[in-house]
Structures are given as structure tokens and as C-alpha cells.
Design brief:
By secondary structure, the protein is α+β, with helices and mostly antiparallel strands. About 25% of the residues lie in helices and about 20% in strands. Among the domains are: about 200 residues, TIM Barrel; about 60 residues, Oligo-1,6-glucosidase, domain 2 (Alpha-Beta Complex), CATH 3.90.400.10; about 120 residues, Immunoglobulins (Immunoglobulin-like, Sandwich), CATH 2.60.40.10. The two termini are about 60 Å apart.
């Protein structure tokens, strides 16, 4: 019995030792001939070969002056951080004066939002970036402005205002679209009409008006509006709120209390100046419980001077619409909000002759003179209404030419422009007829799927499929690859919070063909979803010092505990930040990795998916060298043979082991590990 117990114990110990996970620097076979693969990269010569762009939101990045908002002085002070990531360019979120924090509702293209600093501080930042061989790209919104842009303020003054042609106006949009009278929507015909994209605006200007309210029948209150030469008798809103009080609401929250004439009759003589119409309210503070009175629909919202209008109300205030005075018209906003007003370039064949085109090109020249190196063009498939026609690519070609012609007057190379077509690669491809560079959303969507399904064998095939499609439109295309951006959930959140998958997603981005974009915080493993608001994917950069912004309190409470600070991640060699730094350094070191041509591996590809579906493998060739890229997207260690003439490991992620065989090598790769070899 004693001998048997000894034998059983020995067998248990042997079994347990065989089940141990490999530890760094040791043989996973516990005495076999496998050895741990370690990085032995060439020394970097300081040449940034890789075209890596770092996207940041100025307001959330680095606060120098202590007001809680990011600024250009803070950004300048943190340029060393961006430089250490190997970035060759910075894409700035909109920096113009705007109606909201995010800047995509521009009020003036020619100016700088003062919260970020002065034009001098902007130019100082650009010079400092150039000293580190970092270009600066400016976000430019060319399909719409904010409704508070001074062009729009001029346009709504009258029908014959010279700025009227800058925007899309119509008194009868459905009929005008059907008749082909609106070139920006013409190619869609009657299907181009969407009532949710048209908003009423008054062009009557300043008037003194008499508002008479008949509340004798509360079920059907009536309003009569008349013009008058009498002097305004505005009571303001000083009277205490009462159950029978009635208010005129217009403009930017302007509230005027009616005079109670008795017998359910109310009257107000007031100076009226509002582009957005007006409402009647029965509460000075509430918008619910039928306190909001107006029209039942946009089309029924127009009143006639001197004619009673029956007011409409509802428990849901969102279905009560502003009343409009005579002389109102409608403007187009593709994004279903009256905060935006679509720019009007007319027929695409003559777009460059339109006043809006000339004006937006002229404002672009201001930023070229300030030193910027390119533009990121927002929502380019929404410039012309029909995103599937050839209108938008043709327009983009005209816009690029006009801006580049000016740029080349002071530079010896072409300007860089990258367009956002928020769609899959099939819809993106035709836009290469207009621009050299376009964002590739399909790359991230497919990579996310691959990591979720632990399947890497299709990645090379997918990427090559995208490339072959783009070649049909232009051979010098630039794929702006990315994971997440400011309009999407953070990559780590979409990967279920997995730290291992987050690291590997960054490693794949930086070892795949294309010109990668890194959204700030991605290199830190930020979390954040858009389920509550955009602010949750635009959180402050946690520096660990006084530069951290505080512009918003809408931050995932788990963020700081999840990612730590830049200072703590810098000190952790295994951090997400250091993974990004290591792989970007490798990409900048090796020409093949930076811009090489991709080919599938002959053994490990989609055709051999049943053998090792977890394995993503491809070659990159360029600059007189060839490299092999290997990623195990599986959740377990894999073992496979490799017949390639391996030389040295340029960069690794996680644990990778190799064993020399008579012909080739046997490889072991831990879950979510990566390695890139140079080949002999």
C-alpha cells in the first residue's frame, strides 16, 4: 500500500508539472528544446517611416491654464508624449468657435475657439509639432454649419440676402425636390424628401406685434397675431407665476407674460425678433402636462396675420411644434436637427462656382497660412444628399484641387486630406475617385469580429479584398486604418473589457498594411460607450498631473481605476501604453512593416481555416526586406510548424516559443500573443 501510494503521488506530481503554463524564459515542455522568443530589433535610426496619426480632442487632452478645458499650450507641452508613440501627424478635433463643446456645429471657419487659446498659441503649437516632425491635420466640416454661423444669420434676414445661396432653402421642399429644383438633392428625386430634415425659419426680421389670446374655451384656445405701429408694452416676466398666467416663448428662451384682460382674454404687444418661431406656455418653468401650446405639425405651423389660429397641445411636448409668422421658409439639415444647416454648392458640375464653395476654400487658406498640413473632412458622404451617386466624389476632387492649388504655392508637396465615409468598404471604395485617403471602418469591424470569435485566419484575405476593391478606383489609395474614434464605442469596451484583446488589437493595427490612426486614450486601454452620451467616449486624458482636464463630469466611473494614469502605465512594461510604444517603434524601424506589400501565408490562411483558425499570418515585403507577421487570436496556446527562413524577432506580444527542426521550426504561441520576424 505504501509503495502504491508513492507511485500515485509521483504520477500526480508528473501530471501537475506537465499541466503548468509556460513561464517567461522557460521551456513550455519542461525540459524540451523549445526556447522563448525575445525581441531583438534593429536599432531605430530616428526616421519615422510609419504613417501613424494620433487623433485627439483638444478640449479633453491637456489643460495648461487650469480652466478645466484643454488648450494649445497644454497640447504643446505634451508633444513629447505623442512623439514617443511614434506619431507622424496629429488630427485635431474641430477648433473653430461652435455652438457646442464638440465643435461640429461651426460658427466661423476662419477663427479659433477662444477656450483653446489664441491664433498665436495655435501657430506656436504647430511650429513645435513640426520641430518634432509631426504634421497637424485640422478637422473641417464642409457639409453643414451650425445655425449660429454668421453666414446663416445673414441668410435668414431676407430672401434676397447675398448669403441666401449658401444654404438650401425652400418654401415647399416636397414639390421643389420632385421638380428637380434643388440640385443638392436632385438625383434622388421624390425619394429625397424627408420631413424630418426640413426646419422652419422666419425671415420677417424685427417687428412690433400684437398677440391676442382667447382662452374662453380652454379646450380650443385661439391666438390672433397682428402687425402694429404701436409701441411695445412688454410686461417682461416679472409678475409672479399664477394658475391663469400665459406666456409667449420665443428666441433664445425669451419669455413674455401676457396681460390678463379678464373673461379669458389676454393680450401682449411686444417687439418680436426670432428666426425659430414661437410657442404659448401656461407655465414659466414646465414643459409637460400640456403646458406647451403650438401647432400639431410643421406643415400646419404657419399663421396668417389677423386670422385666429387654434392652438394644439399634448402631454408629450415633443409633438408640439413652433408657430411661424408669415414670411417663413424652410432649410435643409441632413442630420435631422435644426442645430445644423446644410451648405448649398448647387449642381456638382459647377460646384466650384458657388459662393459657399468659394467661401469655405477661402477660409481653408487661413489655416494653411497658419501652418497646418492637411484636413480631415467630416461626413463626406452627406455633402450631396445621394450618398451613392458620383456627386460626392466629384465634389471632393474639386475641393481638393482648389485647396491644394493654394497649398502648393508655399509647399513643395501636395496637401493631405482624409475623408470620413462612415460605411463599409464597398461604399467607401468609390470615394477614392475624389480623395487619396479614406477611413476604413471595415478593418475595425472585421478585427473586432475576429477577436470575439477567436478566429484570425480570415484577416489577411479580408484586408487584401479591401485593397483589390480600392485599386479599381485608384492605385495610389491610402487606407486610413483605425480601431475606434470619437463617434464609436471605445475599442476595449467593444472587446468586452478584455485587456489581452485590447493589447492585441493595437498590435494588429500596427502590423497590418495601411496608415493607422490611434484615437487618444486607446493606447491606454480606455473604456467608454455611447449608450449615455458621446462624452463617455471623449473622457479626459489621465496624465497623473495638473494637465488632466475637468471639462465634463460625464465619465465612466470605472475608467480611472481601469486604466490608471500615463505616469503609472509608463512605469509598467506590460501596460497597454508600452505595447503601443513598442509596436509603433518597430513599425517606424522596418520599411516592410511600415509600408510593405501584404501577401497571404501559403499554409495559414482562410483556405486552411480548419487547421489553425486562431492564427492570423501574412507577409510584408518592402524596402529590400521581407517579414512574417503572426498573431494568435485564440484563447488557448497553439502549436504549429513553420517552414519560413526566420531570422530575428522584431517585436513580440505575450509568450512565443520556438523549436528548430530538421526543416523549419515548430512554434508555440500563447493566447493573444503576437510576433513579427524578419526573414533571411
Amino acid at each position: 500500500m505504501k509503495k502504491s501510494a508513492i507511485i500515485l503521488c509521483a504520477l500526480f506530481l508528473l501530471f501537475a508539472s506537465c499541466r503548468k503554463d509556460p513561464t517567461p524564459g522557460t521551456d513550455p515542455d519542461n525540459g524540451g528544446s523549445f526556447s522563448r522568443v525575445t525581441d531583438t530589433p534593429r536599432a531605430w535610426d530616428g526616421n519615422k517611416r510609419a504613417d501613424i496619426t494620433y487623433q485627439l480632442l483638444v478640449y479633453s487632452f491637456a489643460d495648461k491654464d487650469g480652466d478645466g478645458w484643454g488648450d494649445f499650450q497644454g497640447l504643446k507641452d505634451k508633444l513629447e508624449y505623442i512623439d514617443q508613440l511614434g506619431a507622424t501627424a496629429i488630427w485635431l478635433s474641430p477648433v473653430h468657435p461652435a455652438m457646442s463643446y464638440h465643435g461640429y456645429d461651426v460658427k466661423d471657419y476662419s477663427k479659433l475657439n477662444p477656450v483653446y487659446g489664441t491664433m498665436d498659441s495655435f501657430k506656436d503649437f504647430v511650429r513645435a509639432a513640426h520641430q518634432k516632425n509631426i504634421k497637424v491635420y485640422l478637422d473641417y466640416v464642409i457639409n453643414h454649419t451650425g445655425r449660429e454661423h454668421w453666414w446663416f444669420s445673414q441668410a435668414i434676414r431676407s430672401a434676397d440676402n447675398p448669403y441666401r445661396d449658401y444654404y438650401i432653402f425652400s418654401d415647399d421642399p416636397r414639390s421643389d425636390i420632385s421638380a428637380g429644383k434643388i440640385p443638392m438633392i436632385k438625383t434622388e428625386g421624390t425619394s429625397g424628401y424627408d420631413s424630418g430634415q426640413w426646419f422652419t425659419v422666419s425671415t420677417t426680421g424685427n417687428k412690433t406685434l400684437v398677440f391676442r389670446l382667447d382662452w374662453s374655451n380652454p379646450a380650443q384656445p385661439r391666438l390672433t397675431v397682428s402687425e402694429t405701429e404701436a409701441e411695445a408694452e412688454d410686461p417682461g416676466n416679472d409678475a409672479p407665476a399664477a394658475d391663469n398666467a400665459k406666456y409667449l416663448y420665443f428666441g433664445d428662451g425669451i419669455l413674455r407674460q401676457f396681460n390678463d384682460k379678464g373673461g379669458g382674454q389676454y393680450e401682449l404687444v411686444t417687439d418680436y425678433a426670432s428666426a425659430w418661431g414661437f410657442l404659448i406656455r401656461t407655465s414659466a418653468t414646465q414643459w409637460n402636462n400640456k403646458t406647451k401650446y403650438g401647432a400639431q405639425s410643421k406643415t400646419a405651423a404657419a399663421i396668417t396675420y389677423g386670422k385666429p389660429f387654434v392652438l394644439y397641445t399634448n402631454d408629450n411636448p415633443d409633438v408640439v411644434y413652433d408657430l411661424q409668422l408669415p414670411g417663413s421658409t424652410m432649410f435643409h439639415s441632413h442630420f435631422w436637427t435644426n442645430w445644423f444647416a446644410d451648405l448649398n454648392y448647387g449642381a456638382v458640375e459647377t460646384a466650384e462656382q458657388s459662393p459657399a464653395f468659394k467661401a469655405i476654400v477661402e477660409d481653408a487658406r487661413i489655416w494653411i497660412d497658419a501652418g497646418i498640413d492637411g484636413f480631415r473632412l467630416d461626413a463626406v458622404k452627406h455633402i450631396y444628399h445621394n450618398e451613392f451617386s458620383g456627386e460626392n466624389p466629384e465634389f471632393l476632387k474639386k475641393f481638393y484641387t482648389a485647396v491644394n492649388d493654394y497649398y502648393r504655392q508655399s509647399r513643395d508637396h501636395d496637401i493631405y486630406m482624409v475623408g470620413e465615409v462612415f460605411s463599409g468598404h464597398e461604399q467607401v471604395a468609390p470615394y477614392y475617385k475624389g480623395l487619396l485617403a479614406l477611413f476604413e471602418f471595415s478593418f475595425w469591424h472585421r478585427l473586432q469580429w475576429a477577436l470575439e470569435q477567436n478566429t484570425g485566419c480570415y484577416l489577411a484575405k479580408d484586408i487584401l479584398t479591401y485593397q483589390n476593391l480600392y485599386k479599381q478606383y485608384r492605385t495610389d489609395y491610402i487606407r486610413a486604418t483605425k480601431l475606434s474614434n470619437h463617434d464609436e464605442n471605445r475599442a476595449r469596451s467593444d472587446l468586452g473589457g478584455s485587456l489581452a484583446k485590447t493589447k492585441q488589437a493595437g498590435a494588429i493595427l500596427l502590423t497590418a498594411p495601411g496608415s493607422p490612426y490611434v484615437y487618444y486614450g486607446e493606447e491606454m486601454g480606455y473604456i467608454g460607450t455611447k449608450t449615455r452620451s458621446d462624452l463617455y467616449v471623449r473622457s479626459p486624458m489621465y496624465w497623473g498631473d495638473s494637465y488632466t482636464t475637468s471639462y465634463t463630469s460625464e465619465i465612466d466611473p470605472a475608467l480611472s481605476q481601469t486604466v490608471g494614469t500615463v505616469l503609472t502605465q509608463q512605469a509598467d512594461t506590460a501596460s497597454v501604453l508600452n505595447v503601443y510604444r513598442k509596436f509603433s517603434r518597430a513599425r517606424n524601424t522596418y520599411p516592410a512593416l511600415a509600408s510593405g506589400t501584404m501577401t497571404e501565408h501559403p499554409l495559414y490562411n482562410d483556405k486552411a481555416s480548419a487547421t489553425h483558425p486562431q492564427l492570423a499570418a501574412w507577409y510584408l515585403t518592402g524596402g529590400g526586406e521581407k517579414m512574417i507577421v503572426l498573431h494568435n487570436l485564440g484563447k488557448e496556446q497553439i502549436t504549429f510548424s513553420l517552414n519560413d527562413p526566420l531570422d530575428k524577432a522584431a517585436v513580440t506580444l505575450g509568450n512565443v516559443y520556438m523549436q528548430k527542426e530538421k526543416e523549419g521550426y515548430k512554434m508555440k504561441m500563447d493566447a493573444y500573443s503576437s510576433v513579427v520576424f524578419t526573414l533571411k
